[in-house]
Design a protein that fits this description.
It contains eleven helices and two strands. It is mostly helical. It folds into two domains: 86 residues, no CATH class; 62 residues, no CATH class. The protein starts with a helix and ends with a helix.
């Protein structure tokens, strides 16, 4: 286990408290939201997703209908064939990959459908969006998967913890 993973697990309560507090206190929420773009850039200047790809190896994004349509067209497949071959419905009624790691993840951690990837993938880990503050459980989960999420949350703790 890497140091950041250990720290992320140890700091779950602190992260949760800060995120929930920010959702109840508008001034704190605005302060944290204002900090996100810079913290996002800082984290990704130090972390290379291609060295990690833990998101693609451990989770599936939601494949929304526009994603399915775009990816099927890119792969020159019928939408139904794409769904049948790669996707399944999860307990929330969303299409997700049938297997992990993601079937579109190449051995070098690049994405075989990068230009057409699902919007969830393009936005992940939401460290420059209000989703980071508003979807507490998702952010807590992401902090144990993504070193960039962990890095951003650690800096947010200094601001609003």
């Amino acid at each position: 286990m890497e140091l950041w993973e250990k720290e992320a697990k140890e700091h779950q309560k602190a992260y949760k408290y800060m995120l929930e507090k920010s959702n109840k206190t508008k001034s704190l929420q605005n302060k944290l939201l204002d900090a996100l773009p810079e913290l996002h850039e800082e984290a990704f200047s130090k972390i290379n997703c291609l060295d990690c790809a833990r998101c693609c190896k451990n989770h599936s994004p939601r494949f929304k209908q526009p994603d399915i349509k775009r990816i099927a067209k890119s792969l020159r497949m019928k939408e139904g064939d794409l769904v049948a071959q790669y996707l399944k419905l999860d307990e929330e009624g969303d299409y997700v990959t049938r297997i992990t790691p993601c079937p579109f993840l190449a051995e070098d951690n690049t994405c075989n459908i990068y230009e057409d990837r699902p919007s969830d993938c393009a936005r992940y880990p939401y460290t420059d969006e209000d989703v980071l503050l508003k979807r507490v459980q998702l952010t807590l989960k992401n902090s144990t998967v993504c070193p960039a999420t962990h890095a951003v949350l650690e800096k947010l703790l200094l601001i609003g913890g």
